[in-house]
Amino acid sequence: MPQSPHVVIIGNGISGVTCARNLRKMDSSVRITVISGESKYFFSRTALMYVFMGHMKFEHTQPYENHFWDKSRIALKEAWVETVDFAKKSLVFKSGETLPYDTLVIATGSKPNKFGWPGQELIGVQGLYSKQDLELMEENTQSGIQRAVIVGGGLIGIEMAEMLAYKKIPVTFLVRECGFWNNILPKEESELVGRHILEHHIDLRLECELKEILSDSSGRVSEVITSKGEKIDCQFVGLTAGVTPNIEFLKNTDLEVDRGVKVDEYFRTNVPDVYAIGDCAEFDKVPAPDRRPIEQVWYTGRMHGETLAHNLCHEPVPYRPGVWFNSAKFLDIEYQTYGTVPATWEVGQLKNFYWEHSSGKVSFRMLMDLEGKVLGVNNFGFRLRHEVMDRAIREKWSGGKVMDRLNHANFDPEFFAPYYISIQEAFKAEFGGNFHPSKKTFIQKLFGAKV
Amino acid sequence: MTWIEKIGLGLFLVGLTTFLVIPFLGTYSLSEELVKANTKAIHQDKMAEILAPMYGQEYSSNFTFLSAFGEKFDAYNDDLKSQQLWDEVIWDDYSFALAKAGLKSPVRDSPWLFFALAIGLAVLGGFLYNFRQHADEPEGIKNNGIFHSKLKNRGWIGMITGFFLILFYVVLYWFPAYLVNLVWMVNPISEMISGNPASQWFLYGLIYTLAIIVMGIRMFRKYRGNKYQQLRTASVMFFQTAFAFLIPEVLVLLNQPYFDFKNIWPLDYDFFYDYQIATFLSSGGVGMFMLIWGILLIIIGVPVFTYFFGKRWYCSWVCGCGGLAETVGDPFRQLSDKSVKAWKYERWIVHSVLVLAVVMTGVTIANYFSGFSFLGNVTNQLHSFYGFAIGSAFAGVVGTGFYPFMGNRVWCRFGCPLAAYLGIVQRFKSRFRITTNGGQCISCGNCSTYCEMGIDVRWYAQRGQNIVRSSCVGCGVCSAVCPRGVLKLENGPEENRINDLPIIIGNDSIKIHA
């Protein structure tokens, strides 16, 4: 009897693990090995900040109990891959050990960007991506930090700021752009988050870049110099200016790489039986007009993983992402987005509806095409139901219809302020529309729910 | 810590220390009159004789007094037992009544002073500590540092807290005679409310209620900005204060049976005991109303409310055990075990307790209607076993004493027969579910970590599957701590309650269902 094929997955992040789990569900005989040098067991990378802040212990970030992997017959190998011998179909580990594969899935994720700043390798200067980064950050911030500087205004930057604030370390947050995350967020939303950052006593410096990091005599960071020439004394520097595919060990091999591992819409690389998914994959053409060639989001990683698992077991299908969605939390403010909401657009090209609560912490934006069909929404400080928004955008509902159903789309807990009523009223005042704003329910009246 | 929190903590510790010292104050002495006044008529002469050697002696502590009492009393009983004269053995325990009567102490002389120094300071301190918490922070999740805390992560402060809680329950249930000073301390309050002297149960009820109120204020602060948490906290504070504490005492004042209108069999396991039934039947219209009300809650209230709202209507909005768990126990919610193994134990244990309670009650009722010809007094043995093992040891000592070790819902999860009953309804016939929001879950684990019932919420959330679990008490904390807005407690149509959406919405390549 021929041995069942051996699928080896490098990387046990969300993409690799989703692929492994779905492979097992679809094929009970295939041999599966998942390799990671970072951590034997899968954990949720996005939760590392909560470990630092004492919300959870590291083991709480592991979505499956340890016995799950044995039960699913997914072999876990804790090792770092040194290189891949594509000709022999074999992995070579740092230890010199080798492992043959029939099918190889590369899911090695990302690493923090470092743009060649002078002093970027000093002690106390780091990014935050891996479990090891977390451990390093715990060590680096143990004591003696009077101030920290964070460079780069993205999601990891604000997480790092929140983490440092937990330790009561004053933070200066250098953001190159003129608004927080304003390559993604429209102006109003970017300002909303910016205000909230200041509310948390984080020293947000917009349009300010890092020029140089200086050290003391022991090789530890002691100050940074900004593009404006200002010196800031600090003992810790967080580099959070985005991430880049983690494929160093694959360069100068037969595998075609650019910024990431080049793949087609079936996740196939130029080498037969070798695939790449998740953060480290770079599509040769974008999967959809509103997508980028490298998708570095938790949810896209999952979709890559499940789609590739399907393709390895069944008739391959091309990767076709549906309506875009994403979410994040900026300190205390939750953010969700559905569909396409670019940071900027030409006036007269789209219809724009924006509502903001007087607290300045809750907002809703809906973009529509010129016919009034919804293209996408941003919501801050309250929750929307994914299923409803996905349908609205997929079926190109009119803005009025979205408003009409906004009470069904509301996903805030019971008794919360019914923001959707104010949003409906504001929309009606601005755009008209054939719908009536919702009435407060009996329970909402009873408990005095108000916006 | 702000200065006001420091003062609060300081006052609380002074109050707590006073509370712990009070039981050791004063002296004890007995006289024949005292003994006769505090024993049943049939035992009066005998007890007076047994305890005669103690008359006129002054005992300097509760230990010496109770050991002398135990010596005399046990000697008498042991002798009869060895001769198998079971009918002459005195089964009643008079140690509490006699210790209470024989006490001379400054606490008995000035109860209000000691009440102010012990409970007053503890409550004031707790209030000061809590009422301004997080004042200078924006609204949001306040879980910072929980796993770095020596109290909330099974550190040494947690161990000491657990030890004291367990000790308190053991003494309360089985050695209440050591607490007579504390009982005297709250005597005037009892006299005010019900017109009767305080018992250890009055002391317990008072502390319990105050603890829920003070820690309820903490909940208001911690969950500022979360209306669901605020309302249900206010609800448990109200039901504990009014229904569990005040109304029963006022009923006694009005010469009616002591009755907690929100306590439901089988949590209220003695509801169908013969003496309870006798009380209801002998108390006219009010008693009859109580009996019918209690039965209606069991057969209509539980299924109907649980159908519409899930078991949360009781467990995290009304129940007294739940009230304590959700307020005093909230700092420990993250300590519940989420493993599949724990879930397995939970199902076996909690349903066994339910079966035991049902069988015990069935036998009791059958026996009652057969005029005690069915089993005679055997049901009493069953009652005392259940009362000891489940009512006291499990619900009290383990249920609350283990907060700092196994989380705040040990009893509710593993032991409460009413929770098991509500859970069966919730699982199979209810509109309640926790809806998960499509694909937005990032598997971070906050929901599972903070689930007091040990439900691995994330297991469902990351599959986009609604959570329909019998044990869920609907506290809503999973939804509160979710950083991505994935979870929502909802009541809705039964159809599609266990949903069949794709695991991830938004992948048009393939659709994988959970």
Automatic annotation (TrEMBL), chain A:
It comes from the Bacteria. Gene3D superfamilies: FAD/NAD(P)-binding domain. PANTHER family: NITRITE REDUCTASE [NAD(P)H], PYRIDINE NUCLEOTIDE-DISULFIDE OXIDOREDUCTASE DOMAIN-CONTAINING. It holds the Pfam family Pyr_redox_2. The keyword Metal-binding does not apply. Belongs to the FAD-dependent oxidoreductase family. It comes from Algoriphagus alkaliphilus. Keywords: FAD, Flavoprotein. Signal peptide: none annotated. Residues 6-292 form the FAD/NAD(P)-binding domain. InterPro entries: FAD-bd_OxRdtase, FAD/NAD-bd_sf, FAD/NAD-binding_dom. This is Pyridine nucleotide-disulphide oxidoreductase.
TrEMBL record, chain B:
GO terms for cellular component: plasma membrane. Keywords: 4Fe-4S, Electron transport, Iron, Iron-sulfur, Membrane, Metal-binding, Transmembrane, Transmembrane helix, Transport. InterPro entries: 4Fe4S_Fe-S-bd, 4Fe4S_Fe_S_CS, Electron_Trans/Redox. Signal peptide: none annotated. Gene3D superfamilies: 3.30.70.20. GO terms for molecular function: 4 iron, 4 sulfur cluster binding; metal ion binding. SUPFAM superfamilies: 4Fe-4S ferredoxins. Residues 432-460, 463-492 form the 4Fe-4S ferredoxin-type domain. It comes from the Bacteria. Pfam families: Fer4_5, Fer4_9. The chain crosses the membrane at residues 7-26, 112-131, 156-175, 201-221, 233-255, 275-308, 348-370, 385-405. This is 4Fe-4S binding domain-containing protein. It comes from Algoriphagus alkaliphilus.
